[in-house]
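Chapter review: from sequence to fold.
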Amino acid sequence: MNKFIYILILSVFFGACTSNTIIKKPKNLIAKEQMVDLLTDIFIAEGGDNIKNINLQRNANYFPFVFEKYQIDTIRFRESNYYYTSRIDDYDEILEKIDARLKELKQQYDVEIKLTDSLERVKKDSLRDLKKTTNAKFKKTDSLKNIKKKLDIFQKNRNGNKALSLRSRYGR
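The C-alpha cell string follows.
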C-alpha cells in the first residue's frame, strides 16, 4: 500500500511539472519573417553595447531605434516573443534563420574589413614609395648642388690659374 501511494504521489508530481500550456495567439502577432528581421537587429544592437559609436560613447541603448525601425512597441514584441518561445519548433526555426543571417553579415563584414585593410596597406606602401622617391630626388639635387659647387671652385681655380699664368707671362 505504501508503494502504491508513493507511485501515485510521484506520478502526480511529474504530471504537474510538465507544461502543456498552449498560449493563445496574440491579436497583434509579429509575422515570423518580420520577427527574424527584428531579432537579427536586436542581436546586432545587443552586440553593439560595448563598441564606441560615432560620438565615442559606449553602452548606448540601440533597442529603441530597432523598435522604431519596425514601428513596433515593446509590449507587442514581448507578446509575440512569448508566443514564439512557447512554440519551441517555431522559435528554433526563427533562431536558425537568425544564425544564418548573422553569419552571412559577418562574412560580408570580414570581406569589407579585408578590402579596407588592403587599401590602407596600399596607401601606406604608396606613401612610403613616394617618400623614397622624393628623398632620392632630394639626394640627387643635393649631389647636383655639390657638383656645381665643385665645378665653380674648379672654374675659379682655373680662371685664377689663367690669371696667374698670364701675369707671369706678361709680367704684370
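Two observations follow directly from the output. The longest helix spans residues 88-170. The helical segments are 2-17, 32-47, 63-69, 74-86, 88-170.
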